[in-house]
Amino acid sequence: MKIALVGATGLVGGVMRKVLEERGFQNCDFIPAASERSVGKEVEFGGRNYRVVSVADAIAQKPDFAIFSAGGAASLQYAPQFAAVGTTVIDNSSAWRSDKDIPLVVPEINIDAIQDADRIIANPNCSTIQMVLALAPLHWEYTLRRLVISTYQSVTGTGMKAVNQLYAERAGQPCEKAYPYEIDLNVLPHGGNFEPDGYTTEEIKLVNETRKILGNNNIRITATVARVPSVGGHSEAVNAEFERDFDLDKVRQLLSEMPGIIVQDTPEKNIYPMPRYAKDRDEVFVGRIRRDFSNPNTLNLWIVADNLRKGAATNAIQIMQKLIEKRGITM
Hints:
Elements: E1 2-6, H1 11-22, E2 29-34, E3 42-45, E4 48-51, E5 53-54, H2 55-60, E6 65-68, H3 72-84, E7 88-91, H4 107-110, E8 120-122, H5 126-142, E9 144-154, H6 160-171, H7 201-214, E10 220-228, E11 234-242, H8 248-257, E12 261-263, H9 275-278, E13 284-291, E14 298-305, H10 309-327
Parallel strand pairs: 1-2, 1-6, 2-5, 6-7, 7-8, 9-10, 12-13
Antiparallel strand pairs: 3-4, 9-11, 11-14, 13-14
């Protein structure tokens, strides 16, 4: 089986390689691809060094799958070219997420959204993935009416340039800035680009992607995104209003039974999710589960996950694994 990784030299690309190894793909025909400036570099995978090729060269090899983590412009340009030669593309950018004809998938929730003929599949935004994984079983049981979301997003979501900025500031060294202000010892209420209505693109993604994945355009959603000096993962405070009332013990049971969720909710022992301990984990951690006494049928949740793993690499590779199983592809 041939697997191309487009964006193999980037921050997420490195995590993609690690997760592919962990999930038994180290013996596949691996094709690392990247932009022209990275062609000829070497990346390590499965104990071997591979020379990075151009995207055009990767397309010519007609891989079974191409996992993209190279930005929206590259995805828009090259994903259709891969699809034209029969490759299934799993794209980690925002390029295809809002396209009504492209499935937007979290495997535990809506893998059946992918049809046999689909050759481009969108991976949701990292902050969306962890949130909907926790909300889906509750939505199925009680029906979501409204969400108020506040995110505390790791600098890793911006890329290596942002990580380097954080550590350089902490060391008192000059650096190229990914953000307009210092990130160390600071919080920036700014994720993505600002739109004319005052919301950012990261906030809009949370609204539109949640509705699409859960298959309900009637859920009222508002979001505020903040970037924090953390490298372990994203954290979210979610206030969820439902059509029907709930029992907290039943809520904890539904969350505990959801694949990929770990409940950490023993506040009397100071047990609750934190990004420091979510780092390098595939699970989504949920805690601070409590009723909102100011509004009927409303729940507060604290949701944490490693945004580079379940929020990007792991989710994409889980999609591929499901398709391999579904389509009977030989590894």
